[in-house]
Amino acid sequence: MPEAKRGALERHRIPAEVRESLEELRNLSSKAEGGDKDAKRELRRKLNEASPGVVARASDVGRRAQHMLIRAASAGDPLTHDALSGRLDMMREEIAGENPTPLEVLLTERVVSCWMLVTLFEFLMAGQLNVDTKDRAPLSYTLKMLRWQESANRQYLAAIRELARVRKLQANMPTGSL
Question: Sorting pLDDT into bands at 50, 70 and 90, what band is 13?
């Protein structure tokens, strides 16, 4: 693996202290979900005291959605699953660039999520259009999937345009103070 790509993957690994804190919060969450009121209070307290990195990871439902799409696209193949997960990490790094603003980070996540959704729809449509596929969905469902795919592609392109627009606006901003 090229050094740049290996570095991108390492930057997206969760630091040990964040990972440990998340594990502790997940354990408390499981107990709270089971009805343990003390665990629920402790969970709230620990979450309030947690670092921004821990809170960001614990609340990142966008990344959870991406992993749901990865599971669907990989269809149980561990290699494809892990490769897609790594690819999304590399895309985040490449698209966000060095020292991204918070807005660039949000838009980067949107681009990556939309790419994954478009890719999944392409995979699903290919299966429907494959002449060797014996169990095809009805044509009406295939047409509906095609509309979903078109919508996802429009969202993907809109996210890319918006990120480019934000970067252009930031590039035109005067530096320094008044």
Answer: low
96 with 139, same domain: the answer is yes
Q: How far apart are CA 36 and CA 51, in angstroms?
A: 24
Q: How many residues does the chain have?
A: 178
pLDDT at 128 over 90: no
pTM, two decimal places:
0.76
The structural domain count of the chain equals 2
The number of beta carbons lying within 10 Å of the beta carbon of residue 84 is 21
Q: Which amino acid is at 162?
A: E
The reply to whether 123 and 140 lie within a common domain is yes
161 and 120 assigned to the same domain: yes
